[in-house]
């Protein structure tokens, strides 16, 4: 019965009645059927988005809205993305629910079953953004300072409004299977971020890393022969170059390559893996120095050397005391509460700070104010 009702709806909106005195929006559109329901795909100029598409009143209780509250903290990031990439930004389609008696006029020159035509929507109709409200809000903000983008277009998918429950279900379904790509894939595919380019180059060219970096996943399978994930290497590079603004990309690559060479001399197990004397899973299981938290902490240590203008060729000597530490996971007296919590490696921000503090103290380096505070809190809780 429901599909029969949908077919009837499709028949009604395909046969355009004569509407005298009705003002309409006219969208060139393609008509389709999904789950027995008619929908339309069109293009909308960016300058019309703020005027036509709305979201539910944020003052309404959550159960009476068609989508989540607008998170205004996300908007500046999207605005910055558009402004910095005005000639290369990419947006997926906006999904909207239309509360109006729409009609679809097939194109005369189109083939009978092509679905091409014009979607006509009364101007007093109501558009509710079911998916894409943050994109819409960011576009509205960008147009204030860059109005020439207003003539560019974004795809819009129109569904017919069948009530609040239907709109809420659409929102739930559209977000049900949304999965963010892994951070490693993000680094691998990001060609805008200069630091991501440095990480990809170093991972491909460093004798220490080449062939031993997992580039797709953020975690390593137990049987993986890789030593590190790309996201962990990138995290170490972010720590290494924090606050560094004077280096160009070639100099950053040289510094990163030097860091990995200096670190490699402190951890003989890394060389044993490359020489196939031991298997990577065994080292990852028994030691913590291949894990992301330690790599980030080591990146922070090397960041101090970089900011202090210590030549990279001397870093190995500066880091030499690290080779005397017991990096085994069973050394809970040293690592528990820092790199380990309950015997499990963790990368919480507080644990990174405490791990870095321990390494600095072992190297005879002064602790940062953040690390001093973390150590004081740790002692107070002991």
UniProtKB/TrEMBL annotation:
This is DNA sulfur modification protein DndB. InterPro entries: DGQHR-contain_dom, DNA_S_mod_DndB. CDD domains: dndB.
């Amino acid at each position: 019965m429901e599909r029969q009702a949908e077919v009837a709806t499709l028949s009604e909106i395909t046969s355009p009645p004569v509407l005298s005195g009705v003002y309409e929006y006219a969208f060139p559109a393609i008509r389709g059927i999904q789950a027995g329901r008619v929908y339309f795909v069109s293009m909308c100029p960016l300058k019309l988005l703020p005027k036509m598409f709305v979201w539910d009143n944020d003052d309404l209780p959550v159960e009476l809205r068609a989508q989540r509250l607008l998170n205004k903290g996300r908007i500046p990031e999207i605005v910055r993305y558009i402004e910095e990439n005005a000639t290369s930004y990419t947006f997926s389609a906006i999904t909207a629910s239309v509360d109006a008696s729409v009609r679809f006029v097939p194109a005369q020159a189109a083939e009978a079953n092509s679905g091409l035509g014009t979607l006509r929507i009364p101007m007093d109709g109501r558009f509710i953004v079911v998916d894409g409200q943050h994109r819409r809000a960011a576009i509205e903000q960008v147009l204030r300072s860059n109005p020439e983008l207003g003539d560019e277009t974004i795809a819009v998918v129109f569904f017919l409004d069948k009530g609040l429950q239907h709109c809420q279900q659409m929102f739930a379904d559209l977000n049900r299977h949304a999965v963010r790509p892994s951070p490693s894939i993000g680094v691998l595919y990001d060609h805008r971020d200069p630091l991501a380019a440095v990480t990809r180059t170093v991972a491909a060219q460093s004798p220490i890393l080449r062939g031993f970096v997992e580039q797709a996943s953020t975690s390593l399978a137990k049987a993986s022969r890789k030593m590190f994930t790309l996201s962990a290497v990138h995290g170490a590079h972010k720590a290494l170059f924090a606050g560094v603004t004077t280096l160009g990309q070639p100099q950053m690559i040289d510094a990163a390559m030097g860091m990995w060479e200096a670190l490699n001399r402190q951890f003989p197990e890394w060389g044993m893996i490359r020489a196939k004397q031991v298997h990577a899973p065994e080292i990852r299981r028994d030691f913590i120095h291949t894990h992301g938290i330690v790599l980030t902490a080591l990146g922070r240590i090397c960041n101090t050397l970089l900011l202090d203008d210590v030549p990279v060729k001397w870093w190995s000597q500066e880091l030499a005391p690290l080779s005397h530490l017991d990096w085994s996971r069973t050394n809970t007296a040293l690592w528990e509460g820092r790199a380990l919590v309950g015997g499990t490696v963790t990368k919480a921000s507080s644990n990174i700070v405490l791990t870095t503090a321990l390494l600095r103290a072992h190297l005879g380096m002064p602790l940062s104010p953040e690390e001093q505070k973390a150590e004081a809190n740790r002692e107070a809780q002991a």
